Structure formats: structure tokens, C-alpha cells
Amino acid sequence: MTMRSWSAPYVPSLPAAGLPAASGALRLYDTAAGAVRETRPGATARMYVCGITPYDATHIGHANTYLAFDLVNRVWRDLGHDVHYVQNATDIDDPLLERADRDGEDWRALADREIELFREDMTALRVLPPAHYIGAVEAIPLVVEMVEKLRAKDATYTVDGDVYFPVAADATFGEVSRLTREQMAPLFAERGGDPGRTGKRDPLDALLWLARRPDEPGWESPFGVGRPGWHVECAAISVQYLGMAFDVEGGGSDLAFPHHEMSAAHAQVATGEHPHARAYVHAGMVGLDGEKMSKSRGNLVFVSKLRSSGADPMAVRLALLAHHYRADWEWTDAELDAARTRLERWRAAAARPAGAPVAATLAAVRDRLTDDLDAPGALAALDAWAAGPAGDDPSAPLAFAQITDALLGVALR
Predict the structure, then answer these.
(1) Is the predicted pLDDT of residue 18 greater than 50, yes or no?
(2) Of residues 124, 119, 144, the one with CA closest to residue 52
(3) Is residue 389 very low, low, confident or very high in pLDDT (cuts 50, 70, 90)?
(4) Phi, psi of 286 (to 5 degrees)
(5) What is the pLDDT of residue 57?
(6) This prediction's pTM
(7) Is 96 a residue whose pLDDT tops 70?
């Protein structure tokens, strides 16, 4: 079954006459380089962002991540690039099966419902949709093909019917996260790995194919009936739809290891090419009550519940944009209250009969966003225009609204 994306919001064209053209390049912090670096796409910028495991979507932490990469998408487009954006949905995995079993629900019905809710949330937040939105179940043939390529290169082995990838097969293993093995070990156990399993050659070796367990779904493959491992799913999808050496692989900072590290290793060994991605970009974690917001802790603030309580999605978006995408921060009611106030000020400014020229404001917003997505700096530039003198340019209020919409995704009209 083919997964469908969500509807694309209208993105206005920015005023051109008399305004400085977008120039330069988007600079982003690359985890693998440990520094802010220029992205240098060709005519088409290629980006892969890891999607949700659909058993409890969409919390503010998710939204924070997808808004960060929506900014990447929008800035690249403003710089004149087409953008080929791909995202997955892990619609078969242990957490999904465990939640379905707990609630006495069919796992497919649970995944379908949560994916649809995710689509609704992304649409409300005006996140530009991926060109390809691919489910893990849909991608099983691609996963099987990649595992077969790894097996042909002697880069697999089995433990009780489960197929593993030996990390020693990738000479560059570790370059994505820049972690030592001592740092990797506890994170691997915490984030879905099985370092203590008997029979593994190396505690860090990653699961490629899980043999079918009793009362669990499974699919035919040359390795027996089973289902994909997590990391190989994203490796297979990204290689199929973007090729190797695409411009940005993105996700939350908790994906740098093991997920992005393992996906890169799988793809690089399977294809014989390097690198998997030119840059690995990670968004910070959003907390609540002193802890990272996560499904396992249950301390979640859901976008859908905020919307159903009457929160304007544009205020939710502004609350997230008020923080730098790489920052770790804590959600509070005050965050949303401040965003509502800002949104009211901007809408009032956009409704004026005239305003001051916006050329300098547009230049400032572009400057801040191309510098590692400094959204707070961009908001400050827009705040300054909204609080400034009324001016006598009748086209300025509309131009202001077009800037907030095209570059920040915040609709004022």
C-alpha cells in the first residue's frame, strides 16, 4: 500500500522589485563535521528527514523537528533551489506492536489513524510536504534488496534467524556521531539496540531483519519470514529516492546515534559509495516538567490537543520558532501565550493601510535564516518592523505578510 503525503500550503512569491536578491548559501551545523558549514546543493537540493513511529503522534517535540527542516526547505527554495524532500513513517516496529497489544487494537489500524493525525497536524502547521512519504511496510522490497546487497558483500550474519550487520564492515563507522565506543554503548542500549545479546560478534552490531515472532506480522524474504530493522529502513528508502551523497539527513538529536550512524553504514557498505549524506543536521529536544518530552515517559504535549483546545496553529508554530532549532528547551504555557501575543502584533501590522518599506527587513530575515536557521533572530527583525513607524507605503503590509509566510510559514492573512 502506497503512503500518501499531505497537502501543500500556498507559498507566496516574495516581492522582487527593489528588494535584494537572496544570495550566498544556507549554512547548517553538521554533526559529522562538528561545525557550521555551507550547504552546496545543485539545482535540486536533496533532503531526507526521519519520520514518526505512528503510535502516538504528533507531540511538540516532533513538531519542533519538522518545523526546523521546513525552514531548511523554505530557505533553499528562496535561494532558488528546487527541493526533493523525502520522509519515512516507521509503520511496523516494536513500539507500535506493543502499543497495539496494550490497547487491544490492530496494529495497522493504529498506524493508519496516527499517520492521518500526523498529516492533519503538519497541514495545520503549514509544513511543506515531502515529495515522497514512504512507509516501512511499503519499503520492505527495498529493504530486502539492500540486505541482499550487504549479504553479497559478506556484511551480514545471523543469530537465531535474525540478520545482523557487523559495524566492522564500514571502515568509517563512527564519523556521523563522532562518539567513542564507550559513549556509544549506553546509547545503543537506551535507543533500541541489543548490545547484550548472546551470539553477536560485536555488541554494537545492528539488526537488519527480525525473524517472525509468534503472533507478530511477517513478510517473505530470502532470509525467512520477518520484518525490517529500523536503521536499514531509512537507508533503503533514502538511497532509492535520493541516491547517495544527498545534501541533508535530518532528525532529532537523539537520532545521531545509533540511527543515522547505522543507516549511513548500511548504505555505504551496500552501495560501495561514500558519504551517505553530505551533512547530518539535528534538532534539539523539547522538554516538559524537567525531562525530555518522549512517548516512553508519557510527558507529551500533543499538537492535535492544542488545536482542539482552540490554539491557533500559527501561534504554536511561532512558539517553536522562538527557539533556535538546535537548542534544548522546555515547553510551558507561557511559551504559547508569548507566541499568541506576537501573532496578534504581526497580524495587526499586516492589516495596516500602509507601512514602512520592508526591503531591509527581508534582507535581515534572509541573513538570519541562512546563518544556521537563526529563527529567533528572524523573529526579532520582523518584530522591529511591526513595532516601527506606520510609514506610507501601501504595499508594505502585504509584503510583510508575504515574508512571514514564505520564509517562516506563518500565515497572517
Answers:
(1) no
(2) 119
(3) confident
(4) -100, 130
(5) 78
(6) 0.95
(7) yes
- Sign, CA dihedral 374-52-277-286, equals positive
Cell numbers linked to 197: 545479546
207 strand-pairing partners: 164
Distance CA 203, CA 293 (A): 28
User: Exposed, middle or buried, 252 (CB in 10 Å: 0-12/13-18/19+)?
Assistant: buried
Q: How many CB atoms lie within 10 A of CB 353?
A: 9
Sequence-ordered list of residues with C-beta below 8 angstroms from that of 409, at least 6 positions apart, any chain: 9, 67, 70, 71, 74, 125, 126, 127, 128, 317
Phi, psi of 336 (to 5 degrees): -70, -35
Task: List Cβ<8 Å contacts ≥24 apart for 303-311.
Answer: 303/58, 303/59, 303/60, 303/62, 303/63, 303/121, 303/124, 303/125, 304/58, 304/117, 304/120, 304/121, 306/336, 307/121, 307/124, 311/336
3-state secondary structure of 52: coil
Burial label, 310 (beta-carbon count in 10 A; 0-12, 13-18, 19+): exposed
For residues 351 and 318, is the Cβ–Cβ distance under 8 A?
Answer: no
Neighbouring C-beta atoms of residue 357, cutoff 10 Å: 16
- Three-class SS state of 413: coil
As a 3-state breakdown, the chain gives helix, strand, coil percent values, each rounded to 5, of 45, 15, 40
Beta strands 132-135 and 82-89: pairing type? parallel
Give φ, ψ of 84 to 5 degrees: -105, 105
Q: How far is CA 283 from CA 182, 252, 257, 265, 321, in A?
A: 24, 5, 13, 21, 12
Of 131, 105, 125, 144, residue with least CA distance to 3: 131
Residue 175 has pLDDT above 90, yes or no: yes
Helix (H, G, I), strand (E, B) or coil at 48: strand
What mean pLDDT is predicted for residues 13-21? Answer: 53
Single-letter residue type at 245: A
User: How many angstroms separate the CA atoms of 207 and 159, rounded?
Assistant: 10
Residue 22: its pLDDT value, please?
47
Nearest to 216 by CA among 96, 89, 88, 55: 96
State the chain's mean pLDDT as an integer: 94
Q: Which helix (H) or strand (E) holds 28?
A: strand 27-30
95: exposed, middle or buried (Cβ count in 10 Å: 0-12, 13-18, 19+): middle
pLDDT of 20 strictly over 50: no
